[in-house]
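Q: My collaborator sent me two sequences in one message, no labels, and asked for predicted structures for both. Can we handle them in order? The first one she listed is below.
A: Yes, handling them in the order given. First sequence, followed by its structure tokens:
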Amino acid sequence: MTIAEWMMIAAVLLAPLTAVQVQKWLEVWREKKERKKQIFTTLMATRATRIDPSHVTALNMIDLEFKETSVLEKWSEYLDCLAEAPKIPAADSPEDIRQTYKNDLKNWNGRHDDKFIDLLYEMSRILKYKFDKVYLKKSIYYPIGLSDLEIEQQVFRRAAISFLGGQHSVKMNVTDFPSPNEGDEVVQMQAKLREYMLDLMEGRKSIPVSMSPAEDEQQ
């Protein structure tokens, strides 16, 4: 048999195996792409609530699923920015904490948003989505009430921890005091009652008891 005939026989024999292997490669490729899309979809859906647990989980999966250098570089820059997030400060009152935290958060949010949008844009480009940075940044719905609620919850949590840890005390305003005469009368009555109880217990005094005949006996 000629070499050409041997190659033809080998091709016929190996064709099923090759087809199976190619099918497996395609399945693996689709699964990897689907996992990337799932991460991107989660980040898009929660980009207005970035402390959502699912958002944090998706961020932590980037290193595992994305191997593209451009995406990993943007993720590294965004991670550095996250490490600089403002902390809720210690202050004398919850209102002081709230105002200071809001100011720090406002200054940090600008850089934080830019880095996050850069990351989303690079991921969308890799996944063949046609989003621009303006769309990714502006097309977000997040009611102001939810933002205030999120800040208030963090402020309340910090204030509660500070109080329970003994770092701050509860402020009290006294609005009324008993009059001097009223206070003296209460003290005197308490002293007399205490003296009377001691006399009863030690036998110096007794409780007067009167008895009257029963109605049947009277009849």
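Q: And the one she listed second?
A: Here it is, processed independently of the first:
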Amino acid sequence: MFYEIDLKKFWHDPYPDLKQIQVIAPVVFVPQLNAALMTRRFDVFEQEKRIEIFSSRQPDGLMTRLMGENMMRKDGEYHRKERREIFPSLSPRTVKNVWFQKFEAATRTIIKNLRGRKNIDLVVDFAMPVSGSALIAMTGLREMKPAEMDQVSQAMINGCANYVGDATIEQTCNVATADIDYHIDRVLNDMIKIPDQSVLSVLYHAGQSLESIRANIKLVISGGQNEPRDAIAGTVAAVLQNPEARAHVERTSDWGKAFLEYARWMSPIGMSPRQVTEDQSILGYNFRKDDRVFFMFGAANRDPRVFVNPDEYDLTREIGQSIHFGAGPHFCAGAAASSVLITKVALPLLFEAFPNMELRNPVAWGGWAFRGPLEVNLSLG
């Protein structure tokens, strides 16, 4: 089975195509992406764990070529080893005892700087610096500025989604990764002398090679900036454009539910690529060795077999089946930090500071491998 897409339309809104693909078959080849797409929730959840068939290791894949072979592009014990090495920096305990206070202090300063303004773009003026400040602290790249962190992250995720081979996008990504290497080199000697709980320090003192440290720092930045940024701005937009959702969070302060339902509804990370290791027929599709497969989290999280009215943002629904952080061994290592930043700091502090904020314009969204609001124009009230 195959299905043709218009890449431009797919970038602006992939969900109509993904809905049709779900109906056609469990696995459908899309020639414009040169990949087989798996879109149904239970298939994605089960098959993603089969690393012996659907390998994360992709020596010629975009992420490996552009960022180096990080732990997301490794399987088995190689993946588990690097995941163990990074855990002390990103564990729930470290997030609670170290990063939470830094998240809160930076966010309060950003909110203070917004006071007196009537209108803002929430993406640029709040979500981006909140996410960037958190990531600067966690990575240890303390000489970076939030806007620079955002720029290099966006360049990398654009590069990793550049399946059409745009040379300009690739060059911009290469400049961004070189900038990250520069910042690692600027602070590494200090980390050697005075260890802390940043990712850079923890990985170095765990004995990880500098090549792997560079690749894993880039991985943390590529997901750790855009996903919280887009989830913060997107959750606010979803709540403000839905009176029932706004009434619910104002009554309950249930920011966890608001975020998780947003991450199901408009999955910030919409896809994870894999490479087939051997010829095999699975779910009625004849895979060949080295085939490219996309596990479509965004589609899985709107599977009508699992979620009633899946295209609606609904805070009354049960979302336990959502797989917005992935599944299996590659479940997002930064999930605890992301959840705390978004639900315990950014969203409650923003609504506390500006309880009367309103959307000034309809919100436009973009992306399919990574997806979020393009801008969220607000009146602060």
